[in-house]
Amino acid sequence: MMAVLAEWLSVPLLAVGIFLVVSGGVGLLRFPDIFCRMHAAGVTETLASGLILLGLMLLAGWGIAAFKLLLILLFLLITSPTASHALAKAALHGGMKVDPDKKETF
Amino acid sequence: MRDLFAVVMLAGIYGLLSASFFVAVDAVDVAFTEAAVGAGVFPLLMLTALALVGRHEQTAGRRPLLSFLLVSVTGAMLVLGTLDMPAFGSADAPAHQHVAVRYIETSPAEIGIPNMVTSVLADYRAYDTLGEVVVIFTAAMGVLGLLSAASSNTGTVQATMHEHRVLRVVSKMLIPLILLFALYVQFHGEHGPGGGFQAGVIFAAGIILYAMLFGLSNTRKIIRPELLQVLAACGVLLYGSVGVVSLLSGGNFLDYSHLLADPLAGRHVGIIVIELGVGITVAAAMILIFYAFANMTVTDEDSPPC
């Protein structure tokens, strides 16, 4: 019973995670500015990967695989925002300015 | 594409894609090494090289048509060569006959470790792996010989804590885990994907991360270049001396079954010791190469070479 419930619960998690990854990719291509694109990619790397990993943990059941996935999730939650931060810092250091009126797309 | 920075980033993406491709064909050890080197250390070293030579390609003497022709001819010859290869995974391909069958069938009994890739790499073909380690060592010595002649040893500037505060806090949390993971990969090479090469690269990546955030001079105080030079040589020496000890015990060069009284235990010990030698040399060589490149470009000690 628990296994069936876990499977049913993991489907919406995985579906929303996949949708967020795709929307993050679309945003990366279509947003006009580098900072807007980082915003879109930031959603992908924390929320989307978190949901996908939670869905996979539910599918894996109790066991060593779920624990390893939990560790991966924690690692991603710590390092992905740091990577976005480093990217934004590098963009500022390189001279990119925040320009809300820029119209150019990719 | 004139912007070499973008070229290096594309090379890193290519490394990551080939790592996932290797996972898709079930070659996990190779994927591990490719991800660590091709998507980690290699773009980093290329970027430090770019800091030396400049970001944009020199346009004098550029012959795009000739290079395109050369690349397409070579690519066409390579594709022509693959047309004759047997189908992927077919049972009568030459790669699955001859020696491979003998290794797969006798490795559990003779060596008894779960990871057959390590048993082939570190035991059956230990001589080739010795050659690989010597190549890495020679590369590090070559880089040192070329770059240290023109090194500029600037005075030490205290690294300020105001720069990169978030990065420093996170890396202080993560660098011990990275080094621990490198040690885990080193000593679990027999039971899962891993081994000396991957562990050395991951260890070096942790130290390079520290150097980039906390300043090169701080890192040079913690891990001295002289110590690294000695360590790089010691790794190769350790590997070779295992072979010599087996010679002196009555077997062939690098025949581990003569190391201890029990041949199976002797093989385990031999594999662990040579993997340790490989890991030490790879880590020391990578860090030395990074030091050599970064030392040339440092003008302001507390900002990363970029």
Defining key terms:
heterodimer; A: 106 residues; mainly alpha; 3 helices; B: 306 residues; disordered C terminus
Helix coverage percent of chain A: over 70%
Coarse shape of chain A: elongated
**How far is it from the N-terminal to the C-terminal residue of chain A, by CA?**
49 Å
N-to-C SSE series of chain B? HHHHHHHHHHH
Overall mean pLDDT of chain B: 83
Sheet of most strands of chain B: none
Number of helices of chain A: 3
User: Please, how many helices of chain B?
Assistant: 11
- Number of individual domains of chain B: 2
Description of the molecule:
The complex is a heterodimer of chains A (106) and B (306). Chain A has 106 residues and is an all-alpha fold. Chain A has one domain (7-93). Chain A is built from three helices and no strands. Chain A has helices at 2-30, 34-60, 64-93. In chain A, helix 1 packs antiparallel against helix 2. Chain A starts with a helix and ends in a 13-residue tail after the last helix. With 306 residues, chain B is mainly alpha-helical. Chain B has two domains: 1-57; 110-306, no CATH class. Chain B has helices at 4-24, 28-53, 64-82, 99-110, 116-124, 126-147, 165-187, 196-214, 216-222, 225-248, 263-297. Chain B is globular.
Brief synopsis:
The complex is a heterodimer of chains A (106) and B (306). Chain A has 106 residues and is mainly alpha-helical.
Question: Which secondary structure elements does this structure contain, and how are they paired or packed?
Answer:
The complex is a heterodimer of chains A (about 110) and B (about 300).
Chain A: H1 2-30, H2 34-60, H3 64-93
Chain B: H1 4-24, H2 28-53, H3 64-82, H4 99-110, H5 116-124, H6 126-147, H7 165-187, H8 196-214, H9 216-222, H10 225-248, H11 263-297
Helix pairs in contact in B: 1-2, 2-8, 2-11, 4-5, 5-6, 5-11, 6-10, 6-11, 7-8, 8-9, 8-11, 10-11
